[in-house]
Amino acid sequence: MVIFRELAKAGVLGNNRRIRDFILPYNNKSDYPLVDDKFLTSQLLLSKGIPHPKTRGLIQVISDTKHLHSQLKNIDEFVVKPAKGAMGNGIVIVEKVDWDESKKKTKIVTTRQASMSYDEFVYYISMILSGVFSLSGQMDRALFQEKLVIHPFFKDISYRGIPDVRVILFRGFPVMAMVRLPTESSGGRGNLHQGAVGCGINLLDGSIIGAMQDNKRISRHPDCGEQELIGLKIPMWKEVLAVAAQCSGLARIQYLGVDIVIDPIRGPLVLEMNARPGLSIQIANGKGLLPRLQKVALVDTKNMSEEDKIQFSLENFGSY
Amino acid sequence: MKRLKTVLIFLCLFVPIASLIYKTQFLGLRLIPKKATTFWKVEMSLNWDNIQRVDSQEVEPPYVLPIPHSLPSQEVISVTLNGKEISSQKDHMTSSILQFGKDGGGNQTTSMHFDVNTEFYDYMSARDPDSRLDYEDRMRYLTMDNFDEETLGLLKKLSDTLVFNSDSAEAKLEKFFFYLADEIILKKEPHTVKDVIELASGSYLAQAQTMMGLARLNGIPSRIAFGIQILDNKVGEKIKYSRMFFTEAFLNGQWIPLFPEKRLMGKVTGNQIVVHRDTENFANFLERRDLLKILLDPVKFDPMSSKEQLQNLNEVSSFWSVFSLHRFSLSIQSIFLGIVLIPFGTVVLSFARVFVGITTFGIFMPILLTLFFLQTSFVFGFTFLFLVVIVGLMQRALLDRFYLLAVPRLSILLAIVILLYILFAIAADSWGILAINNKTLNYFPIVIITVFIERFSIYYIEEGAKNTLKTSLGTFAVATVCYYLLAFKWLKVFLFNNPEMLLLAVGLNLIIGSYRGFRLFELFRFAELKEGQDGNLS
Questions:
Q1: pTM of the predicted structure, to 2 decimals
Q2: Which are the contacts of B171, defined by CB distance < 8 A and separation ≥ 6?
């Protein structure tokens, strides 16, 4: 249609085509649970030795909380996630536990709402279990994970929270990447549609080539002063791409988004995978996805290793 | 696969259209059985217990049951007396009437049922002289014998003040008509002509008698007619009706009905059922509610007469008559009538999501909301929903402090919604803001509302005010469009009559589902990516 001509020329991938041409034909429905359930994902990653945040515990039914109070005594900071939660919904980051013999006096200090009493905390877990945050309201499990540490590189360009790198892979080829920086308006979360900053990345060297917030291009983080984002180089970029490519082979999902947090000591850790990665990454990169996906679709992948695929991507999509 | 889909789409679009062409061109069927007018079921019955008790001096025999006839303004479809069908012929001149003595001729119950289809008709513009009066009739319609001396004197005085002798008959009638329309107040209790003239108020009958007297005094033949006036005929509300008398005057070769109360001169609307056109001698009896009972029910999906439609179908094609929804009883028909359009509502929904890019709460929430609006009324539903959203957010803020488990909390929410429903209904009713009846209040929507508010409040917590507002607007927009589509009666009847059209919805969804182009809203979302705008980046 005429009004869409400019978008088509720019190679923008629209939502309908994303679903009809990529998600439906390339992603097998039966493979979804492995990426939709964070606990299953972490077990899968563990079995293949791919680095990821450590699992501290899992609550499947409300009676599992019986010994929770005594267990909290030895933990200081951790993250609670609904295993099937989408878009970061329902995640609580606990910074400290003021533990006391009596449950009444125990306090759980979180980043989101200052602090919770122990009762409030158990209530929150029961909400997770009843499926309040899960993809389609199914019963869920509460996953306890280690709290990650922010890499010094991101300290000056992020408002609270921990930035992560999203790599979109198609048939195992990294096709586009961005880093998501939490902002005040996103409430310290990395969701672009809630106001986080997305920075497009040059696949070749991990340098930031553009940034966006609320679908508009920007050049500075709104909460972090004068620091120019464009030109900064993401640390450990080669390792990030390698880990992402490993995930792709593992999950069997051919059009995949992999979210990676860079730990100052352990390097890239796979946070989660997504079988329906969003489209805003195109705005962050100032480039449409479609030409890249179409190019990858034609490649004969027989006898291609993960390294070969990364190499192909760097050669074809690396230079801007 | 692709070929299969193309074939399916073709079939889904072709079959309904081909069947329409076949039905109209080869079978000569109408797509909508009858013009969308008003279709009523009427029951009139004599109450013999009361008739036996009544004083013969007060209401003189014979006791009567008038038989309605088809007229330009109405079609009487079937008349049964005590369950047996009796013929009702088209007869514009006279009307027939069944007369009974005090013993009722041995009948214990005497009741008559008929279906009548009414529509607007204007006698004045029709100018279709349909009758002549012979000398005998003329005399009968001019006699003043039924008026006593005193009344006659009053009528003469009134006539002199209202009209000049030189006025034409039409002008005179018009002046009498507007005198009654403007000056006289309608009252329920029985009245006499004297009351009308002296107190300026009177019943239908007394007013009609006054009109008749004035007309006859001026040499215009006139008579009293009897009918049913539907007072309130809004969709979805309980029908209010009353028996009425009106005058018919013979003018330019036709009987002209006059309804001063409704300011209708020579016009009959779909809200008037003419039962009998010459009831002067039985008027006192017909006016008595305790002796003659009249019940009226609208046949809600009024445009259809299933019996006729089926007969019609049977004559031309046994195949189509098997597949006709007209075979079911009226209550089952109304269910089908309610659901035939829903698939097209989902076509709207698909369109809004795939072509426009509107986001909604859940996939089918807009359709559920549409059903809620349809079950109540748009204004009622919308206002109530708005109220519930506010209260829902408040309850969440409160209940979140008690750490309740999910199911009990949802149950509390349900109770709050019902309480609110009650309060809202009472408030709306007592302030007279909205009409409350068994259509606006219904138990089915409660669950929809509860699910809606739960989704809404979670969405609010997680996504914040801005995104919630956006999604709410999208949901309401789609629900509103669907509402107006689903409330479209003509379309509903058309689909009911031709259910094979539902294949069209399947075909349209196959087409919409195959679209891979951009959504309209993506123009704004990806505005930054349009060619020629990425200058400084690359």
A1: 0.65
A2: B163
Question: Regarding beta strands B96-100 and A216-218, do their DSSP bridges make them parallel or antiparallel, or are they unpaired?
Answer: unpaired
Instruction: Summarize pLDDT for A224-268 with one digit per residue, the tens.
Output: 888 889 999 999 999 999 999 999 888 788 999 999 999 999 999
B481, with CB counted inside 10 A (0-12, 13-18, 19+), is: middle
Task: Copy the structure tokens of residue A203.
Answer: 């696949």
Q: What single string gives the DSSP state of each residue in chain A?
A: -GGGHHHHHTTPPPHHHIIIIIIHHHS-GGGHHHHHSHHHHHHHHHHHT---PPEEEEE-SGGGGGGHHHHHTT---EEEEETTB-TTTT-EEEEEEE--SSGGG-EEEESSSSEEEHHHHHHHHHHHHTTSSBTTS----EEEEEPP---GGGGGG-SSS--EEEEEEETTEEEEEEEEE--TTTTT---GGGT-EEEEE-TTT-BEEEEEETTEEESB-TTSTT-B-TT-B-TTHHHHHHHHHHHHHHH--SEEEEEEEEETTTEEEEEEEESS--STHHHHHTS-SHHHHHHHHT---TT--HHHHHHHHHHHHS--
Whole-number pLDDT of residue A175:
95
Give dist(CA B392, CA B398) in Å, integer.
10
Distance from C-alpha of B220 to C-alpha of B250, rounded to nearest angstrom: 7
- The answer to whether B514 contacts chain A (CB < 8 Å) is yes
Provide the mean pLDDT of chain B: 80
Q: Chain A: which residues have CB within 8 Å of chain B?
A: 1, 3-4, 6-10, 12, 14-17, 20-21, 62, 89-90, 119-120, 122-123, 126-127, 130-133, 187, 193-194, 209-210, 212, 215-217, 279, 282-283, 286-288, 320
Give the long-range contacts of residues B388-393, CB within 8 A, separation 24 or more: B388/B417, B388/B420, B388/B449, B388/B452, B388/B453, B389/B453, B389/B456, B389/B472, B391/B416, B391/B420, B392/B416, B392/B453, B392/B454, B392/B456, B392/B457, B393/B456, B393/B457, B393/B460
Interface predicted TM-score of the whole assembly (ipTM), two decimals: 0.81
pLDDT value at position A112? 64
Q: Which of B66-80, B95-109, B507-521 has the highest average model confidence (pLDDT)?
A: B507-521
pLDDT tens string B270-292: 788 888 888 888 888 888 888 88
Contact A29, A254 (CB under 8 A): no
Amino acid identity at B46: L
Q: Please count the other Cβ atoms lying within 10 Å of the Cβ belonging to residue A1.
A: 9
When CB atoms are compared, the residue of A8, A130, A283 closest to B406 is: A130
Give the pLDDT confidence of B162-191 residue by residue, as tens digits.
888 888 888 888 889 988 888 888 888 778
Residue of B nearest to A136 (CA): B362
From the CA of B473, how many Å to the nearest CA of chain A? Answer: 17
Three-state DSSP at B41 gives strand
Chain A to chain B Cβ contacts (< 8 Å): 100
pLDDT of residue B534: 46
Cα Dmax for chain A: 69
Query: Residue B3: what residue type?
Result: R
Of B406, B518, B528, the CB nearest to A4: B518
Q: How far is CA B18 from CA B76, B316, B494, B498, in A?
A: 34, 17, 15, 12
The pLDDT value recorded for residue A235 is 93
**Model confidence pLDDT, tens digit, residues B194-244:** 888 888 888 888 999 999 999 998 989 999 999 998 876 554 456 778 889
Residues β-bridged to residue B232: B240
Q: How far is A185 from chain B (nearest CA, A)?
A: 10
Q: Please give the Cα distance from B178 to A12 (Å, whole number).
A: 72
Which residues have C-beta within 8 Å of that of residue B324, sequence separation ≥ 6? B309, B310, B313, B497
Q: Which residue of A has its CA nearest to B404?
A: A123
